[in-house]
Amino acid sequence: MTTFTPLAIPDVLLITPRRHGDARGWFSETWSRKTLTAKGLDHDFVQDNQAFNLKAGTVRGLHFQTAPHAQAKLVRVLAGAILDVAVDLRPGSPSFGKWVGARLTADGGEQILVPRGFAHGYVTLGPDCVLSYKVDGDYAPRCEGGLIWNDPDIGIDWGITPDAAILSDKDLALPRLKDLAPVKF
């Protein structure tokens, strides 16, 4: 049976599908509309994405999309391990500006469900990490937004030193939360 574990911000869920194993290996149902709907989670995933990260310490994020193309994400690791992070950006939320994180591994099969209204990012914990994630909204560059990964007002503990982080030029230029214009999801 798939387990659903709310994180410190309960709208962000750690989902661990059951693995059925034998001498050959294992089988797992990694996504089921029926299973999620039974838990009150109704996401119409429209796109699957995959990312490869060559080196440990690669940081991607913190990214989000605004209305009318906001996205929820269901993230899992196919090879390696990551620390996956979500920052609450929902206007009026009691946890606005707070973050939660979970370690996702290929070996454990954990997934994280990041709802709309959150910035999302991750750091690779080893080399050659491969991620797969579903989104419930199409990619829309005009609705893209982001936050700088090391914003001191958010205080994410990425588990790496700043000089060990590998980021894109685009992610290095993202604003701090206090400089972000109000967003609608």
Question: What attributes characterize this protein structure?
Answer:
5-stranded antiparallel sheet, mainly beta, 39% strand, 185 residues, single chain, 6-stranded antiparallel sheet
Question: What does this protein look like?
Answer:
The model has no long low-confidence stretch (mean pLDDT 96). The chain is mostly beta strands. The two termini are 32 Å apart. The longest helix has 6 residues. The chain has 2 helices and 13 strands. A 6-stranded antiparallel sheet has the order 1-2-10-7-12-5, with no helix packed on it. Strand 1 and strand 2 form a beta hairpin.
Report the mean per-residue pLDDT as an integer.
96
What is the number of beta strands?
13
User: Distance between termini?
Assistant: 32 Å
Strand portion, in percent? 35-45%
Largest sheet: 6 strands, antiparallel
Helix count, DSSP H or I runs of 4 or more residues: 2
Low-confidence stretches: none
The H/E string reads EEEEHEEEEEEEEEH
Shape, principal axes of CA atoms: globular
> Into which percent range does the helicity of residues fall?
under 10%
Radius of gyration: 16 Å
Spatial order of the strands forming the largest sheet: 1-2-10-7-12-5
Q: Indicate the structural class.
A: mainly beta
Write the layout of secondary structure elements.
Elements lengths: L2 E4 L6 E4 L2 E4 L2 E4 L4 H6 L8 E7 L5 E7 L7 E7 L1 E8 L10 E7 L5 E4 L3 E7 L4 E7 L8 E3 L22 H4 L13
Antiparallel strand pairs: 1-2, 2-10, 3-4, 5-12, 6-11, 6-13, 7-10, 7-12, 8-9, 8-11
